[in-house]
Specification:
five-stranded parallel sheet; five-stranded mixed sheet; 29% helix
Length: 550
């Protein structure tokens, strides 16, 4: 569908342009512009500590000097293996100052997973949380076979004095490991500003962001400076953020949502980014109450955890002007329950690692419709300068209301997968990204997500989309989380199984949940098996891992 045919343009909030021309085409220019405009602005709030833009710049210069002295050059890769703390942002900026690429690494990864990423990207340097170095990375480094020339460690206790034992531990700062540099010591020593030998271009890779691996082995998406700069501006202009606002670091920074919707956004506005090391509902609520942020985006499971935490109240959310959720679809019943508590709707966002976060947003101030046939809540409309199409199995565009694969095109689409030309050729189609997600567009231009193509269940020849069954389960008052998968069945080939966790203090039997679904949907769709668990397996970003359940 061409831009001229886009029926959703009148859905944009009043005063917002239908498309934007990015003011910045690389992240370093964007950062330096904010630095010149507001050097003393507190850009990072970390418990009771703050870093101004000037302090962030000086710390990044110090790290960049140390890396450069050990051979790090333009095009090299710096792996960031840490939690939501200042070290992550310092590492990003340092890599860009040297013309290098940052490689965010999931801090939950263990030796095998970390080694795969370090080997795959050929990282020349590693910035690592000290505890993760002792527990995981040291063994990987000592095993050899990696091009790592430099390891820099940082402590969760750095740049703050309160030492919240709930997430940081209650012990003293660990001694610097043998053979490693200390980030805080480098920053305190200071040094001259780094003379830039290479200024990144829009097409240069800014980060290699590894996919979550929910459908297979993680692949490194090459997100360019132009990708990040464009979508940072999309967030800013879509939400309407400016001076006086602040961003809550709800999502992990290593994930594309946190990387763009938290870090890049805060550096662009510029405005403070509130960090709390890692997600714990009690600690996150304390950060909200103390710093009163105005915007955040995160997985729906994080909002659920906040909603069900003891002592939460409507006043806790009164500082927010907008709340968005991405990474997994929102069941309408969950969205309604959260709004009843907080007084604010959770707006849907849709994107992926390969699209540098959003390709679709629900316009601020609009209400996402619910499809009357499937009960699905709309994921929104395409963002600025972005075209989304629904294609059938033969790559033909289908009519509104018909189901097919969502293919998105725009300035945020990755350059490709790192060292995977065949996978890149498969994923990129006519300048767009094959999302692997099945959905449809209605007559008014709203898009709806049905499910992942690979998750479709074939029950006796009938297609069952897990998402539809999950949405029905969420309407049961006792259900906290639900995931539906297909399991082998001698008669039907596959049958529908649901794995469910219940809300605290609530009870429901598998038979009761099966009956609940049976009353609401066709006979071939409702689950024949229900398993109750205390917790469902998830990625660190909150996506439920259906493949683990299989």
């Amino acid at each position: 569908m061409s831009p001229r045919q886009r029926p959703w343009l009148d859905l944009y909030a009043p005063g917002q342009p239908a498309e934007i021309v990015p003011r910045f085409t690389n992240m370093l220019d964007m950062f330096e512009s904010s630095l010149r405009a507001a050097p003393d602005l507190p850009i990072l709030r970390y418990f009771d500590g703050t870093l101004s833009l000037r302090a962030l710049d000086q710390a990044a210069d110090a790290l960049a000097h140390a890396l450069q002295a050990r051979g790090f050059a333009a095009g090299d890769r710096l792996a960031l293996y840490t939690q939501n703390n200042p070290a992550f942002v310092i590492g990003l900026v340092a890599a860009w100052k040297l013309g290098g690429m940052a490689v965010p690494v999931n801090p939950m990864n263990r030796q095998r997973e970390l080694r795969h990423i370090l080997e795959d990207c050929g990282a020349q340097a590693l910035l690592c949380l000290d505890q993760l170095y002792l527990d995981v990375a040291r063994e990987v480094r000592e095993a050899g076979g990696l091009p790592l020339a430099t390891v820099v460690t940082s402590s969760a206790l750095d740049w703050q004095t309160r030492c919240d034992a709930r997430v940081l531990g209650d012990g003293p700062r660990l001694p610097v490991a043998e053979g490693a540099l200390d980030l805080l010591a480098l920053a305190r020593a200071g040094g001259q500003p780094l003379p830039l030998a290479h200024r990144p271009a829009a097409h240069d890779t800014a980060v290699i962001t590894y996919t979550s691996g929910t459908t297979g082995r993680p692949k490194g998406a090459m997100n360019t400076h132009g990708n990040l700069a464009f979508n940072a501006q999309t967030y800013r202009d879509w939400i309407g953020l400016g001076p006086g606002d602040s961003v809550l670091g709800l999502a992990p920074l290593f994930h594309i949502t946190g990387l763009v919707g938290h870090v890049a956004l805060a550096l662009l506005v510029p405005c403070p980014l509130v960090l709390s090391h890692r997600f714990q509902p009690e600690v996150m609520l304390d950060s909200i109450r103390e710093h009163r942020p105005s915007f955040t985006i995160g997985a729906i499971t994080a909002f659920l955890a906040l909603m069900h935490h003891r002592g939460v109240s409507r006043g806790d959310f009164s500082s927010f002007k907008a709340l968005y959720s991405g990474g997994a679809p929102i069941a309408p019943a969950v969205a309604d329950a959260f709004e009843q508590l907080s007084g604010l709707p959770i707006h849907n966002a849709f994107g992926m690692t390969e699209t540098c976060s959003p390709t679709h947003f629900v316009p601020l101030g609009a209400r996402a419709p619910v499809d009357p046939a499937s009960g699905a809540l709309s994921i929104g409309v395409p963002v600025y300068d972005t075209v989304a199409r629904i294609l059938d199995d033969k790559d033909r565009e289908v009519a509104p209301g018909e189901i097919g694969e969502i293919v998105s095109s725009g300035p945020q689409i990755m350059a490709g997968y790192w060292n995977l030309p065949e996978a890149t050729a498969t994923a990129l189609f006519e300048g767009g990204m094959r999302t692997g997600d099945v959905g449809f567009m209605d007559e008014n231009g709203w898009f709806y997500l049905v499910d992942r193509k690979k998750d479709m269940i074939n029950a006796g020849g009938y297609k069952v989309w897990p998402r539809e069954v999950e949405d029905v389960l969420y309407t049961h008052p006792a259900v906290r989380e639900a995931a539906v998968v297909g399991v082998p069945d001698g008669y039907r080939g596959e049958t529908v199984k649901a794995v469910v966790s219940l809300k605290a203090g609530c009870q429901a039997t598998p038979e009761e949940l099966i009956a609940h679904c049976r009353q609401a949907m066709a006979a071939y769709k409702y689950p024949r098996i229900v398993e109750l668990r205390e917790e469902l397996p998830k990625t660190v970003t909150g996506k439920i891992l259906r493949r683990e359940l299989r």
